[in-house]
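Below is a filled-in request sheet from our internal design queue. Each sheet records the structural input a requester submitted and the sequence that came back. We keep these sheets so that new team members can see what a complete request looks like end to end.

REQUESTER: design group, bay 2
PRIORITY: normal
MODE: inverse folding
CHAIN LENGTH: 188
BACKBONE (tokenized):
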């Protein structure tokens, strides 16, 4: 990755963070973003699924850690946010191929081809379990799944969290960050 790429991406991320402070945007943010970036660096994934693009912050954060051989498929239900995400991602000039799909993830996930070795979920909290179950046939052994807001929305994510922690199909842990946190799971 060139220094220019990193600089462009960092500038766009900072712009989105400032925008988020002015107009509440539920982005993962810098603190939890550091942990997400670390997970991506450690996993070195090639096929990433992101559920909940919003305006591209986490796609850029993830993509910054990858090379041009990686591919991110990201799903956003709102057309206007997907269009803004596309502009932000292009301006960030990150190496991987990024495909933004607009629509309901519950409809899109079953239509996706291939498998994924990294998943980031940050969308409707009470639908996390559905997103997981729909994507599960496409997950390889060792796939890392990171779910945002597992602290403040743990009640809405109960089905998802119970399954990740107790099904025997995943090794899962909660990482507290400030008043919230991430559930980080690995498919066994």
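RETURNED SEQUENCE:
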């Amino acid at each position: 990755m060139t220094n220019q790429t990193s600089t462009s991406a960092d500038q766009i991320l900072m712009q989105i963070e400032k925008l988020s402070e002015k107009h509440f945007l539920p982005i993962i943010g810098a603190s939890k973003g550091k942990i997400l970036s670390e997970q991506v660096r450690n996993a070195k994934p090639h096929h990433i699924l992101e559920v909940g693009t919003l305006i591209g912050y986490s796609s850029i954060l993830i993509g910054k850690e990858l090379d041009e051989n990686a591919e991110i498929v990201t799903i956003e239900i709102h057309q206007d946010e997907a269009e803004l995400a596309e502009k932000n991602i292009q301006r960030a000039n990150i190496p991987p191929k990024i495909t933004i799909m607009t629509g309901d993830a519950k409809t899109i996930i079953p239509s996706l081809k291939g498998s994924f070795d990294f998943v980031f979920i940050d969308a409707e909290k009470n639908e996390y379990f559905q997103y997981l179950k729909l994507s599960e046939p496409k997950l390889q052994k060792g796939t890392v799944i990171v779910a945002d807001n597992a602290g403040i929305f743990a009640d809405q994510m109960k089905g998802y969290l119970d399954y990740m922690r107790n099904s025997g199909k995943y090794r899962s842990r909660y990482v507290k960050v400030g008043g919230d946190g991430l559930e980080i799971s690995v498919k066994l």
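SHEET NOTES:
- Helices lie at 3-22, 29-43, 57-63, 79-92, 105-108, 128-135, 158-166.
- The two ends are 31 Å apart (CA to CA).
FILED BY: M.R.
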